[in-house]
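Box 3.1 A note on notation
Throughout this textbook, protein chains are presented in two layers. The first layer is the amino acid sequence; the second is a token string describing backbone geometry. Keep the layers aligned when reading.
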Amino acid sequence: MDNSMTTISEIAAVFDGPHATPKKIEAGPCFLSISSLEKGRLDLTKSAYLSEIDFKKWTKRVTPQKGDLLFSYETRLGEAALMPDGIRACLGRRMGWLRPKRDKVIPE
């Protein structure tokens, strides 16, 4: 086993969500919040929804993909979950994610 150390930036890209909250609506793409992270899983029953216009604005820089590690960095510090396949979502305040460099890390 290799005991060498590495930095996160060598094995993953790091992103954070916008530092604001969009207008929530009844249906549409998911707006994930820290409440959406529950015991290592993504719980969509605790998610809100936003319009397509807001979704495009909130994902302009980057969109969460399958295998991204979503995490909280405030309040419920340390909550995390892997992003599953087939969900259109953006991240809310106080959330970030790591996108593993798949040639170096397997996100499972």
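The chain has a mean pLDDT of 86. The two ends are 19 Å apart (CA to CA).
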